[in-house]
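Task: sequence design from structure.
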């Protein structure tokens, strides 16, 4: 059974509670007011001012509804839940697309260690294989973002090639930059990816330098805040290239969580706080791809792949993600 979160937790976790409960329900449906009812049952003492409590409950429901609607707006028809016309309840989509499965993978990863909603006995077991599925999501999302080629460079690579061989392959395909021919004298012989998990770019129309070029790090766990590709990308270019790419790269962080601004200014709107929070993250991590962005750009990556113009690694792993999501949902339904 899922835990009832305190209404003071971030609104994204409350929205997650609704999604997870819909996924756990036999009919796949849940009303927006259910969270208030559940919280009332869990509350030990009744409020003294009922009218004030009703107003607070209404504002609370509206905030969570707004978060769900924001998810639906950003992700579009691939969002794996449907909202009724009156906005009273939400239901699991009858057919969940590969993009929807990518969203659900991110949802489940978000609660693998967080005990706010999912108890330990129900939490998904996050193996290296599951982490690799998230790397596949990140690679396809990177392709969707640049609308071009995306390579899954992080270890273990699909090809299992060593670092230097993989480096030469990628930058020959890229056509910009010349990696070193031999391993550096002091470099570890066990170097795997040097902190770079995804390399993506939009091929230029004339095959000359100067295009959108992204270096990304993929972090599926809550320790993503302790990581940043910004320092790794500088070392990567300066240490491993005889001639660095002329393209000016973009740093990126791919993580499955929602944005949860910590301490909000009570005088600021939620939108103002969120904007300021993302600016802060951008200075430290580069472009931050969180759950909503990843789902949207996975959809774009699938569309780009359908043109047949670009190399997009890991696109064939999307059905594996869908199968894993189905298996875990069966656990929720059986609980």
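Answer:
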């Amino acid at each position: 059974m899922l835990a009832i979160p305190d209404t003071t937790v971030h609104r994204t976790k409350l929205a997650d509670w609704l999604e997870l409960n819909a996924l756990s329900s036999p009919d796949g449906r849940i009303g927006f007011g259910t969270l208030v009812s559940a919280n009332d049952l869990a509350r030990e003492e009744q409020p003294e001012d009922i009218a004030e409590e009703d107003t607070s409950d209404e504002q609370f429901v509206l905030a969570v509804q707004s978060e769900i609607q924001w998810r639906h707006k950003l992700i579009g028809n691939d969002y794996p839940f449907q909202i009724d016309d009156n906005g009273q309840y939400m239901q699991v989509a009858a057919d969940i697309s590969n993009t929807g499965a990518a969203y659900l993978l991110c949802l489940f990863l978000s609660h693998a260690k967080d005990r706010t909603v999912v108890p330990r006995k129900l939490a998904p077991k996050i193996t290296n294989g599951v982490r690799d599925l998230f790397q596949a999501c990140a690679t396809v999302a990177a392709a969707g973002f640049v609308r071009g080629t995306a390579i899954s460079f992080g270890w273990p690579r699909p090809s299992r090639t060593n670092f230097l061989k993989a480096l030469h392959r990628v930058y020959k395909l890229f056509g910009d930059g010349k990696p070193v021919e031999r391993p550096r004298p002091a470099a570890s012989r066990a170097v795997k990816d040097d902190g770079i998990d995804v390399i993506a770019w939009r091929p230029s129309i004339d095959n000359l330098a100067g295009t959108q070029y992204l270096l990304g790090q993929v972090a599926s766990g809550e320790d993503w805040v302790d990581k940043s590709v910004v320092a790794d990308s500088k070392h990567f270019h300066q240490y491993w290239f005889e001639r660095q790419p002329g393209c000016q790269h973009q740093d990126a962080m791919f993580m499955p969580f929602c944005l949860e601004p910590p301490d909000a200014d009570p005088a600021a709107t939620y939108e103002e706080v969120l904007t300021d929070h993302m600016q802060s993250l951008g200075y430290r991590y580069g472009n931050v791809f969180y759950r909503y962005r990843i789902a949207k750009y996975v959809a774009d990556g699938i569309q780009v792949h359908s043109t047949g113009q670009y190399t997009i690694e890991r696109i064939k792993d999307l059905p594996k993600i869908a199968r894993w999501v189905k298996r875990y949902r069966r656990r929720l339904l059986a609980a």
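The chain has ten helices and ten strands.
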